[in-house]
Structure formats: structure tokens, C-alpha cells
Write a structure and sequence with these properties.
Distance between the termini: 31 Å
Oligomer: single chain
Radius of gyration: 15 Å
Shape: globular
Largest sheet: 3 strands, parallel
Length: 129
Amino acid sequence: MSETRPHKFIPCSRAEMIERGWDELDVLFITGDAYIDHPSFGTSLLARLLEDEGLRVGILAQPDWRNLQAFKVMGRPRLFAAISAGAMDSMVNHYTAAKKVRNDDAYTPGGRSGARPNRAVIAYTAGRL
């Protein structure tokens, strides 16, 4: 990554897009994880790779799947939207191997559970975008 990059993080809100002077994104990543800018998280890694190619990239982290407006806050991307449940599958994140409910989410701020739906990719692509 370039040492002269003027912005440290990928935009995660309309305000952060406006701060960069963007009215639209080229690529929007939607993920079930919180935004963690580290190469062990595929969404951040891919976003950085595309950013280094000169594309305007944004990340919509843990949108409220019950609210259509949550998916529209950054607008429709020019090229495509890429959707991921996150670094850990949402069902593995919610249940143990013994099918007991987990009480926390390691990839959500504060460890709170319930920030992503079961079968997140299906919920995020349920015809709402």
C-alpha cells in the first residue's frame, strides 16, 4: 500500500465518502463483520487491493438486514457490490458444534451478538438491494 495514501481507512459511511469528494463508489463491499482493516479479513484485503488499482471502494459493515435503508446509505455502486457473511460463517458464529447458541460475537464491537443474521449472505441478497 502506498505510504502517501491520504486516508487511513476505507469509507464506511456516506459522510466518509463526501469527505473524499465522492458522490458514488465503484465497488461496495457488504460484510457481516465489523470493519477491521487487517489482511486476515478478506473484505478489507480485497478492498485495499481494488483501492490500490484506483477504484473508489467502500465497506458497509454489519448492516441491519431488517431495514432496507441500511443498504442504501452509500448509494448504488458503479461497478458491483460484493457480499460476504464475514471471516466466520454466520451460522458458525451463532451456534456451537453442539448446536448451542453462542452468547458473543468476536467480530462485532463489544462482542455483542445479533449484529448479523443467520445465513447472512442469503439475508443480505434477499432482493432488497
